[in-house]
Design brief:
The complex is a heterodimer of chains A (about 425) and B (about 230).
Chain A: H1 3-6, H2 9-18, E1 23-29, H3 36-50, E2 56-62, H4 69-77, E3 83-87, H5 105-119, E4 123-128, H6 137-147, E5 153-159, H7 166-180, E6 182-183, E7 192-195, H8 196-204, H9 207-210, H10 217-227, E8 232-239, H11 251-268, H12 270-275, E9 280-281, E10 284-285, H13 301-314, H14 316-322, H15 325-331, H16 346-362, H17 367-372, H18 375-389, H19 394-410, H20 412-423
Parallel strand pairs in A: 1-2, 1-4, 2-3, 5-8, 6-9, 8-10
Antiparallel strand pairs in A: 4-7, 5-7
Helix pairs in contact in A: 3-4, 3-6, 5-8, 7-11, 7-19, 10-11, 13-18, 15-16, 16-20
Chain B: H1 2-54, H2 57-64, H3 67-72, H4 79-103, H5 111-149, H6 155-178, H7 182-207, H8 209-220
Helix pairs in contact in B: 1-4, 5-6, 6-7
The chains are: A alpha/beta (about 425), B mainly alpha (about 230).
Chain lengths: ~425, ~230
């Protein structure tokens, strides 16, 4: 699909009139009348405080609001900055995005990147319209690293409960870190800062026509930035208080999209991750607050263990095709453990993930089936993770995550040797 | 009298010998066809195995999920070997039928033409069977994984129902294609399928009223705030 098809004719006319701009702030919305005023006020104040000498445009990418959200955006920002609205009611990509559950997310971000390219913007900020905790500092923290410090991709870091983001802590972060050598603690965050250079590069990728319905957009953007050696950093934004997600995406689909994205990228960036040996920290902008632990809902370990044991019982014929005999022989006895003493060892988890990566590479099963069959194993690992760390605090949890990351890096030769052997 | 007897004996002997002499070449032809058939079939089998292995056909079939149903059916050999054996028997039977045709028995007259005329139906039925088996395997696997992830305890039953439902439909289509008891198959399938659908509709309608009401309310009514027990991302 060309630029002309991505942007509507009225928008193309406005772009032609404006010519260029320094910053584009994209606001993704769908029926966010309750929060959008605060969000837009924060954006306007943030731009005025941090980028007073720069030109900026607010681009509202709306998924079909019928509660006056788009009108509220125009009303609050009018006079301060131009506001353009792109409506994505007839979405091209039917799958729901995992990050926000927002329909039309892929369309919105593609439109933003296209606008960045056409307007030759230096920086693009992507924000969600349902964030209750947004404040003007976010604009500074997401925008300045790109606009002034030369960073290409700013990923937000939030203050979270120790068990929030268990998929990230146990799988996405350690795997991405081992593959691409960057310690990006939370590889995706729902909102971002992008440089014009990265936005233009993302537009050239075949993702928009091939992968948009299958893999997580956020994970894919992060992987491209890491694998192609763009400057990636974190910005600490504090607490993320978000209104309920519009759509719910179940865990199996979350796994299929997020893990599938990383495994698919491993096919493309084989030459990069095979030679990556060491890992380095990424720059962090903003001051990390040390604050009391946030209260979260209790974790239902029992339900997760039931899920794991059922997987062991019913999905064993599939796991026999995916896991190596050594890995399977270690997974089987886990079903006999009592609930309180259940432990899914970290090194076994690493081996399991690498076996899944190899099975994905070999296509031993339909890939989506393969990814979704990982769900019970992930539940088992998460239950074990919670049981191991429930007596400790957030610091202990981070230490546990760090140990897991080191194991992923140490066991990487296991993956590399078998990957190459299968290719020969 | 004795001359007549002698002539009858000679004539009878001569006729019999003539018939044997006439039949012998045909029997020899049959025997030759069988031997040639064995040789040709063995050659075809050997070539097929080599060609399929050169093109990594077994790996391809494993990825398509064809190896698993064969394995479950008790066929542990690679698919390339199974295909080569099927071709062996096809070639051998073809030569055998040629030999039987050469014997020129009234009962087997035009046997080859009848078999050749039936082949398109067999090929179409084989294709339908292959697609049906692959489809049954795929959808059963999808149903199993979805049910396990939803922690439905009867996941394997669900997967089995999906698999056998599709296979039943496939077998009905194959038998119809081959023209075997067409009317009975159609009637039996229609009755069974209709009965199952009716039973499921009744069960869902009576047993899931509350669930359906909740689902409709959720779809068309106000969205209630849902607190996830754990945020995975």
């Amino acid at each position: 699909m060309s630029d002309q098809a991505v942007l509507s004719p009225p928008l193309q006319d406005m772009i032609q009139q404006v010519g260029t701009t320094d910053i584009i702030v994209g606001v993704l919305t769908l029926n966010n009348a309750g929060t959008i005023e605060q969000v837009v006020k924060s954006i306007v104040e943030g731009l005025q405080q941090a980028f007073s000498g720069a030109s900026a445009i607010i681009l509202n990418c709306d998924g079909g609001s019928n509660d006056g959200t788009s009108e509220a955006v125009s009303r609050v920002a009018s006079g301060a900055y131009p506001v353009w609205t792109i409506s994505h009611t007839g979405v091209t990509y039917p799958g729901l995005a995992v990050e926000s559950g927002l329909p039309g997310r892929e369309e919105s971000i593609r439109s933003l990147c296209t606008s960045v390219q056409r307007l030759q913007a230096k920086a693009c900020l992507i924000l969600e319209g349902n964030i209750r905790s947004m404040n003007p500092c976010w604009i500074d923290l997401l925008g300045k690293p790109v606009y002034e410090q030369g960073e290409d991709f700013v990923v937000p870091l939030y203050r979270r409960h120790r068990y929030e983001g268990t998929l990230v802590s146990n799988l996405l972060y350690p795997l991405t870190r081992a593959m691409y050598g960057k310690r990006l603690r939370y590889p995706s965050g729902g909102g971002y800062g992008l440089s014009g250079k990265l936005a233009r590069e993302l537009l050239k990728k075949p993702y928009w026509s091939e992968g948009a319905t299958k893999v997580s957009l956020d994970g894919w953007m992060t992987t491209v930035a890491l694998a192609e050696d763009y400057r990636v950093c974190h910005a600490f934004l504090g607490v993320k208080d978000q209104e309920t997600k519009v759509g719910s995406v179940d865990l199996a689909n979350v796994l299929a999209q997020t893990v599938g994205g990383i495994l698919a990228s491993m096919e493309e960036y084989e030459a990069v991750w095979e030679r990556t040996k060491d890992t380095t920290d990424v720059p962090l902008y903003g001051t990390v607050e040390s604050a009391p632990a946030l209260i979260a809902s209790p974790v239902q370990v029992g339900r997760m263990l039931n899920g794991f044991k059922q997987g062991l019982r019913d999905l064993l014929p599939l796991w026999e095709l995916i896991l190596s005999p050594d890995t399977l022989s270690q997974v089987l006895p886990l079903g006999m453990q009592d609930a309180e003493e259940f432990r899914f060892p970290s090194d076994l988890w690493v081996q399991t993930i690498y076996d899944f990566a190899l099975a994905y590479h070999d296509q031993v099963l339909h890939r989506e089936h393969l990814l979704k069959s990982l769900t019970p194993l992930y539940l088992g690992r998460t239950a074990s993770f919670v049981l191991e760390t429930q007596e400790g605090d957030a610091v202990q949890v981070e230490r546990s995550v760090e140990s897991l990351c080191v194991l992923f890096e140490q066991r990487k030769p296991y993956l590399v040797e078998r990957w190459r052997w299968r290719d020969e | 009298m004795s001359d007549l007897w002698r002539e009858t004996m000679v004539a009878g002997f001569r006729d019999t010998v003539m018939q044997i002499v006439l039949v012998l070449p045909r029997l020899l032809a049959l025997f030759t066809f069988i031997v040639l058939g064995l040789l040709a079939a063995w050659l075809v089998k050997m070539l097929t195995v080599r060609v399929l292995r050169a093109f990594r056909f077994d790996v391809f079939c494993e990825r398509l999920g064809m190896s698993q149903p064969l394995s479950q059916a008790g066929i542990k050999q690679p698919v390339s070997l199974v295909v080569s054996r099927v071709l062996f028997w096809i070639v051998f039977l073809l030569f055998t039928f040629m030999g039987v045709d050469a014997v020129n028995l009234p009962a087997t007259a035009h046997l080859i033409s009848q078999i050749v005329g039936f082949l398109p139906n067999v090929l179409a039925a084989s294709l339908v069977l292959l697609i049906g088996v692959l489809g049954a395997n795929f959808f059963a696997e999808a149903a199993l994984i979805a049910s396990v992830n939803a922690q439905v305890q009867e996941a394997r039953i669900v997967a089995g129902l999906v698999r056998w439902g599709i296979l039943l439909f496939t077998f009905a289509m194959v038998l119809t294609q081959l023209g075997i008891a067409k009317e009975i198959v159609i009637a039996a399938f229609s009755i069974s399928f209709g009965g199952v659908v009716f039973a499921v509709a009744l069960a869902v309608g009576l047993g899931a009223r509350h669930v359906m009401r909740t689902a409709i309310d959720r779809r068309f009514g106000k969205h209630e705030e849902k607190i996830d027990e754990l945020s995975h991302l």
